[in-house]
From TrEMBL:
<dbReference type="InterPro" id="IPR044516">
    <property type="entry name" value="UXS-like"/>
</dbReference>
<keyword id="KW-0735">Signal-anchor</keyword>
<dbReference type="GO" id="GO:0048040">
    <property type="term" value="F:UDP-glucuronate decarboxylase activity"/>
</dbReference>
<keyword id="KW-1133">Transmembrane helix</keyword>
<keyword id="KW-0520">NAD</keyword>
<protein>
    <submittedName>
        <fullName>NAD-dependent epimerase/dehydratase</fullName>
    </submittedName>
</protein>
<keyword id="KW-0472">Membrane</keyword>
<dbReference type="InterPro" id="IPR036291">
    <property type="entry name" value="NAD(P)-bd_dom_sf"/>
</dbReference>
<feature type="domain" description="NAD-dependent epimerase/dehydratase">
    <location>
        <begin position="5"/>
        <end position="225"/>
    </location>
</feature>
<dbReference type="GO" id="GO:0042732">
    <property type="term" value="P:D-xylose metabolic process"/>
</dbReference>
<dbReference type="Pfam" id="PF01370">
    <property type="entry name" value="Epimerase"/>
</dbReference>
<keyword id="KW-0325">Glycoprotein</keyword>
<dbReference type="InterPro" id="IPR001509">
    <property type="entry name" value="Epimerase_deHydtase"/>
</dbReference>
<keyword id="KW-0812">Transmembrane</keyword>
<keyword id="KW-0456">Lyase</keyword>
<keyword id="KW-0210">Decarboxylase</keyword>
<dbReference type="GO" id="GO:0070403">
    <property type="term" value="F:NAD+ binding"/>
</dbReference>
């Protein structure tokens, strides 16, 4: 008998790339994708015709089935600050209530994998951040619905592992970008590229000196595929996954102004509690996933993402821009 797999959030940016990889598996009998199209879109799964795939449009926290799953991948949550800040309660429900609900559907001996985030480190005081760093997070701040619900969901899964032996895999992803991000997603790379293709003004918040470590989606999904289901690994997490080349926001914006002639940077007010820096310590990741590296530079990854935006979602947008 092959595996029964469930992906929550599979119509989203990263989730749909994961689904692309899952349908290549020969040891899988069925794949249920649960997504409510809050931030994901049907087009992300439009190219998949695998008869094993069954899509359910539903909130992960309300999904009900008598079926049990051998592998559950929980990615259902917005990752973009403007989206999760607009609906914080919904964000907490997606992560935490979603995880609680999914645990009910786990077959005996099954595994739950969870996409946590570098946001658990808050505005870090040490760099790079190893998994042992406890972070600097404000549980009453504007980002708390996201970072605290990720932290609490990590706790839930670790306690299920410790007290009931549930098999878990927890990754902490650092900023991921690439094709299939929505043009109105609001995160830096997708925002800058949408802006480059419309009004030409790239909105940099604050002085732009804040930094992130930008991981191209193909590299990140390579790591997730190995950690979630390919390699025989008994490390439950947490595992940092990302690209450890740290680059400031202004450098990313300036690069895009060179890539797309005629675009300019527009300096805008800072956003509250914007983390000043973020860079993964990948020592553990390299040990757990030997040979894996984030290979795509931001220069190359942004070019590829730009081409995707230009040729798909933003087609015709130039003529509609004010
Ligand atoms: P995304 O917004 O593109 O995808 C999230 C998907 O989950 C969407 O399809 C959305 O419709 C769905 N969803 C949200 N709430 C739901 C709910 N209650 N019920 C069912 N479906 C729901 O985001 P993404 O960038 O693909 O991120 C995927 C996961 O990875 C998220 O859990 C996110 O927190 C995590 N993550 C992403 C990044 C990143 O840089 N992209 C970084 C760290 C962690
Ligand atoms: N950012 C920016 N302009 C934008 C979008 C984002 O200057 O149009 C900045 C944002 O303030 C942050 C960085 O880019 O410092 C990364 O933001 P993003 O939303 O992509 O990810 P996160 O803040 O969650 O790391």
């Amino acid at each position: 008998m092959g595996k029964k797999v469930l992906v929550a959030g599979g119509a989203g940016f990263i989730g749909s790339h994961i689904v692309d990889r899952l349908v290549k598996r020969s040891d899988m009998d069925s794949l249920v994708v649960v997504d409510n199209f809050w931030t994901g879109v049907p087009d992300n799964l439009a190219g998949i015709t695998d008869p094993r795939l069954h899509f359910v449009q539903c909130d992960v926290e309300n999904f009900a089935t008598a079926e049990k799953f051998d592998e559950i991948l929980h990615l259902a949550s917005p990752a973009s600050p403007p989206w999760y800040m607009r609906e914080p309660v919904r964000t907490i429900k997606a992560n935490l209530l979603g995880a609680l609900n999914l645990l009910e559907m786990l077959a005996p001996g099954g595994r739950v994998s969870f996409a946590s985030t570098s946001e658990v480190y808050g505005d870090p005081k040490i760099t790079p951040q190893p998994e042992t760093y406890k972070g600097q997070v404000d549980c009453t701040g504007p980002r708390s619905s996201y970072d605290e619900s990720k932290r609490c969901t990590e706790s839930l899964l670790f306690e299920m592992h410790r007290t009931q032996g549930v098999d878990i895999r927890i990754v902490r992803l650092f900023n991921v970008y690439g094709p299939r991000t929505r043009p109105d997603d609001g995160r830096a790379v997708s925002n800058f590229l949408s802006q480059a293709l419309t009004n030409g003004k790239l909105t940099v918040y604050g002085d732009g000196q804040q930094s992130r470590s930008w991981g191209y989606v193909d590299d990140i999904v390579d790591a997730l595929e190995r950690y979630f289901w390919l390699d025989d690994i008994d490390y439950v997490g947490p595992l940092n996954v990302g690209n450890d080349r740290e680059v400031s926001v202004i450098d990313i914006a300036n690069y895009i102004t060179q890539l797309v002639p005629g675009t300019i940077v527009e300096m805008c007010p800072p956003i509250p509690q914007d983390p000043t820096n973020r860079r993964p310590d990948l020592t553990l990741c390299r040990k757990i996933l030997p040979g894996w590296e984030a290979r795509v530079s931001y220069e190359e990854g942004i070019k590829r993402t730009f081409e995707w935006f230009r040729d798909t979602v933003m087609k015709g947008a130039e003529t509609e821009a004010p």
